[in-house]
Write a structure and sequence with these properties.
Order of helices and strands: EEEEEEEEEHEEEEEEEEEEEEH
Helix content: under 10%
Largest sheet: 13 strands, antiparallel
Radius of gyration: 33 Å
Number of helices: 2
């Protein structure tokens, strides 16, 4: 058959290791879990060979290796990633304390380091959480966690001249910090045909540093990224093994090197349902014994929307409420504009000129048709009208006081 044929049977990706841990139950409701792990991971023989159809010499978008005489090697063997390996060691400690029956504290620490040909620095990790059953069937949860991700071999060991993105051996590990707060409840238990109603609302904030992305054809550590997320979730369990569920998620992210993150939607809507059509097929039937089957029909729909903020453009500032005897800036034609730029705050400009780049100062760019002299005349005219308005308001107050 036609198409591109290649062989990757020589690739070998392996990981092996061992973990040792133990737990202790101490007085006052304290539990400890501590241990360590050691593992080895490697990538080798990442060579791809191409068959003769299509011809690797004329129809492949890459150069094929040659022998000492300059003749191309059969099947055009290309190494996409160089061989790499490392050993990883880590120790960890986790503790749980329940001072009250409805209050639980959790905390932990982990230290991990990579050794060998492709090592990474010693990285400490921390976590903490609290769960409080403040009302019957109501729980409050909060947790803080740090994390990291070492560079993958594909991003550090890409060989030159292949079909892969360029690798950088000196990549740093990604680090993250996250906070999450949640309130959940379980209501309407065994009320008529309702088995239970599960409700949840939570907020999370995630901060990423030294994120590894592809920039200009090669891997590299970029700037910082901050992500805010709010979620509302509801799931209704009905008698007969049916359930309905709905959720909404708001997501907003910014990056230090590119401003507002626009590659993901801000709003996510999801609806789902599951109905048990036939229950316990084959139960107590000949040939099935105690084995039973259920037939369910499931439905799920997800939609998303993006509400991109206005950037690098001016929009009129809402007019203030008009006071008696005192004209506002909108009523006398002195219109102020608010200019916003991606990744920065907003500034109020006297003219309609947009911000330049990511600065927060107003500019007199070519997008504005007003000249500086025209703008100055309009400002003077606005000030005169304001003075006239303030004088008339004082006169009206004086007449009312005399009357």
């Amino acid at each position: 058959m036609g198409g591109l044929h290649f062989d990757i049977s020589h690739h070998l990706i392996q990981r092996a290791g061992a973990t040792v841990d133990t737990d202790l139950n101490l007085p006052y409701g304290i539990r400890l879990l501590f241990g360590g792990e050691l593992f080895y991971e490697s990538l080798s023989n990442d060579v791809t060979e191409f068959d003769a159809s299509p011809s690797p010499l004329t129809q492949l978008p890459l150069y094929c290796p040659v022998d000492p005489s300059g003749a191309p090697l059969p099947h055009c063997p290309r190494q996409f990633d160089n061989d790499a390996s490392r050993g990883v060691g880590a120790v960890y400690l986790s503790a749980q304390w329940r001072p009250l029956q409805k209050l639980t504290f959790d905390g932990g620490v982990r230290i991990q380091k990579g050794f060998g040909p492709r090592p990474y620095d010693l990285t400490p990790l921390y976590s903490g959480a609290i769960v409080w059953n403040f009302l019957p069937d109501f729980h409050l949860k909060a947790n803080y966690t740090t994390g990291f991700r070492p560079p993958a071999f594909q991003s550090t060991e890409s060989s030159l001249g292949g079909l892969n993105y360029g690798g950088k051996p000196n990549l740093k590990t990604e680090t993250s910090q996250s906070f999450q707060g949640e309130v959940n409840a379980r209501l309407l238990r065994n009320v008529r045909k309702v088995r239970e109603l599960e409700l949840r609302i939570d907020y999370s904030y995630t901060f990423l540093d030294r994120l590894i992305t592809i920039h200009q054809g090669s891997y590299g550590n970029t700037g910082k990224r901050a992500i805010h997320s709010v979620e509302g979730y509801a799931k209704l369990y009905l008698n007969g093994d049916h359930f309905l569920q709905a959720s909404y998620t708001y997501l907003y992210g910014t990056q230090s090197d590119s401003g507002v993150q626009r590659n993901v939607p801000n709003h996510w809507f999801s609806l789902g349902a599951s109905f048990n059509v036939i229950k316990h097929i084959g139960k107590n039937k000949r040939g099935f014994g105690d084995v039973a089957f259920d037939v369910n029909t499931n439905f799920r729909s997800t939609s998303s929307a993006r509400t991109a903020p206005m950037t690098s453009a001016c929009r009129p500032r809402p007019a203030r409420r008009r006071r008696r005897g005192r004209p506002t800036s909108r009523s006398i034609g002195c219109r102020r504009w608010r200019c916003c730029s991606s990744g920065s705050g907003c500034a109020f400009c006297a003219s309609g000129s947009p911000l330049t780049g990511s600065s927060t100062t107003c500019s007199t760019s070519t997008t504005s048709t007003r000249t500086s002299s025209t703008t100055s005349r309009r400002r003077r005219r606005c000030r005169r009208r304001r003075r006239r308005g303030s004088t008339s308001s004082r006169r009206s107050r004086t007449i009312r006081s005399v009357a």
